[in-house]
Amino acid sequence: MKISARNQLKGTIIDIQKGATTSHVRIDIGGGAVVTAAITNEAVDELKLAKGQAAMAVIKASDVLVAID
């Protein structure tokens, strides 16, 4: 697979929580960091996502915000 997005984080799916229409997929990318993606239940089914499966979080955003307390 080739993709133009530069922010590609390889990891392992550690949890999938399905809601009425949307699933939250948690991907452990190492170093104690976990990325959560909100995707449709249909996408989870089509990709046959499962806990323990290798996956990549691909982040495409026009803005990155920084905040502090």
TrEMBL record:
Q: Which UniProt keywords apply?
A: Molybdenum
Q: Short name of one Pfam family for this protein? A: TOBE
Entries under InterPro entries matching the protein? Mo/tungstate-bd_C_term_dom, Mop_domain, Transp-assoc_OB_typ1
Q: Please state every residue range assigned to the domain named Mop.
A: 2-68
Q: Which Gene3D superfamilies match?
A: 2.40.50.100
Keyword Mitochondrion among UniProt keywords = no
GO biological process terms, alphabetically, are: molybdate ion transport
Q: Does the keyword Thylakoid apply?
A: no
Q: Which NCBIfam families match?
A: Mop
The protein's name in its UniProt record: Molybdenum-pterin binding protein
- The scientific name of the source species is Rhodopseudomonas palustris (strain HaA2)
Lineage runs:
Bacteria, Pseudomonadati, Pseudomonadota, Alphaproteobacteria, Hyphomicrobiales
